[in-house]
Design brief:
Elements (H helix, E strand, L loop, with lengths): L6 H6 L9 H16 L8 H12 L4 H13 L9 H15 L5 H14 L3 H14 L4 H14 L2 H11 L10 H13 L4 H14 L4 H13 L3 H15 L6 H15 L2 H19 L2 H16 L7 H9 L9 H13 L3 H16 L5 H21 L3 H8 L13 H16 L4 H17 L4 H16 L1
Length: 466
């Protein structure tokens, strides 16, 4: 790992930090490095340890407050609407920024988080882009915007935001190889699979422990249904990425998806029980929760018996019933409530989302709830209640708009699978025919997919019986 940067090193990089504490500057770099690499470095004390020491080194260091609050907000597990402590922290950061002679870049960072906290995610991205136009190597602005574009489903913006600053990330700039990884993910999410794989391999040639670039290649293999290639790659590289504790669970999720694709459910559940569930129950991180809910729901659609696994998940999902930070998160929490047959939590999530959606104010996600979030959630409820026709009626008209709830194409595929299963199990001949049409579409997009072939056989059997 490169030496952590002090006040002068940040100044030399054109990224002045308004503090006289070299220790604070180095700890800021330590936190940024761990965030950028998806890894808590225990030799540094982990992100939490570094944030604690950072606050002690200079309690009035505005960018220290920015990175601490930013990581909480970007984590999407806490909202200022319900969490008084977080609300106070954001308010204090804004007040502190007004009492100090900061650089324009630092002020923009504060403003971006202030609007993000109020749900104005597109506006936050605009402010981070302002920073990047004049400070293209501001990694915090780049990573915050990258993650937020992902939450918004702004796939081209996620790719192009990195492309605009890419030439400035030369080999001598700390963490530059990771920027290749970010760019590769933007490429995969805009279906430029070959280029994505090439750039990800370039990043891995520089640093084989780059878990995000591994993740890009996992996506490429998933989207092309190249299952054997995907399984081989994950197995061969596991030793390099499994210590990236913030992303390892998600990479194991991708690994398990290949087994679900093949119909090897026990192998998928082995990975789940060993590498996915324990991490989630310990961390409670939203990405880990989403992975758990999504994987179990896919297995549920395949007819796999899941035992007590849904009930185990309730311990981490129930506390988020009223969050409504991202619609993508909401629908995954809902999967766990439906899986565990927790009718109270299901009702509470839907009711509180409906209430907030009536007056979304400036909250971007809540403004999408009436048109996308609520019909999507209701489709899951209808399907679980055996109302397959109704589930199709809710889901089919919005299928091309669901990118707006965020997540990756691979993650949102669970919505496509729900639609196919609902149509297949429908009482309506027209909807069963729709299932066959959707499967033809899927087959051309992902040739030789074992799951698609299974579903096509099922559709043919349903048609023959009818």
């Amino acid at each position: 790992m490169a030496a952590l940067r002090d006040c002068k090193a940040w100044q030399d990089a054109g990224l002045v930090l308004s503090t006289t504490s070299n220790e604070a500057c180095k700890l800021f770099d330590a936190v940024l490095t761990q965030y950028a690499t998806w890894t808590n470095n225990e030799s540094l004390g982990g992100i939490e340890g570094c944030l604690s020491k950072l606050k002690a080194a200079d309690p009035n260091f505005t960018m220290g407050h920015v990175i601490a609050n930013g990581l909480e907000l970007i984590g999407t597990g806490r909202t200022v609407r319900l969490d008084g402590e977080l609300d106070s922290a954001v308010t204090a950061m804004v007040a502190l920024s007004k009492s100090q002679p900061l650089t324009e870049r630092e002020r923009l960072h504060v403003s971006a988080l202030d609007v993000f906290a109020r749900g104005q995610l597109p506006k936050a991205c605009e402010l981070w882009e302002q920073i990047l136009q004049s400070h293209p190597t501001d990694l915090l602005a780049l990573k915050f915007s990258h993650d937020t574009y992902f939450y918004l489903g702004y796939q081209r913006q996620m790719r192009d935001s990195v492309a605009r600053v890419y030439p400035f990330w030369t080999r001598d700039v700390p963490l530059s190889s990771y920027v290749k990884g970010y760019y590769s993910f933007g490429l995969v999410e805009t279906n430029l699979f070959d280029r994505a794989e090439k750039v990800a391999h370039e990043a891995l040639a520089i640093n084989q422990r780059d878990a995000w670039s591994v993740h890009t290649i996992a996506h490429v293999n998933e989207m092309k249904a190249e299952v054997e290639k995907g399984l081989k790659f994950m197995k061969e590289t596991e030793k390099n990425w499994k210590s990236s504790d913030m992303l390892a669970c998600h990479n194991y999720w991708h690994w398990a998806l290949y087994y679900i694709e093949k119909g090897e459910y026990e192998a998928a559940l082995t990975i789940y029980d060993k590498h996915i569930a324990p991490v989630c129950l310990a961390s409670g991180s939203i990405l880990d929760i989403v992975d758990n809910c999504s994987m179990l729901y896919r297995l549920h659609l395949e007819g796999v018996k899941l035992g007590d696994r849904w009930n185990d998940l309730l311990g981490v999902t129930k506390k988020h019933t009223k969050d409504h930070i991202l619609l993508f998160n909401d629908v995954h929490f809902l999967m766990s409530y439906l899986g565990a047959k927790d009718h109270k939590s299901t009702e509470e999530l839907l009711t509180t989302l409906q209430e907030l959606a009536r007056a979304p104010r400036e909250d971007h996600q809540l403004s999408l709830a009436p048109r996308l979030g609520l019909p999507l959630c209701q489709a899951f409820v209808e399907f679980e209640n055996g109302n397959c026709d109704k589930a199709v009626d809710l889901l089919y008209p919005i299928r091309y708009e669901l990118v707006q709830v965020g997540g990756s194409d691979a993650q949102r595929d669970v919505f496509s699978l729900l639609l196919i299963h609902a149509a297949l199990n429908s009482k309506s001949k027209a909807k069963r025919n729709l299932a066959r049409c959707l499967l033809h579409e899927r087959d051309l997009l992902r040739p030789k997919s074992p799951m698609t072939e299974r579903l096509i056989r099922k559709a043919a059997a349903v048609h023959a019986m009818a």
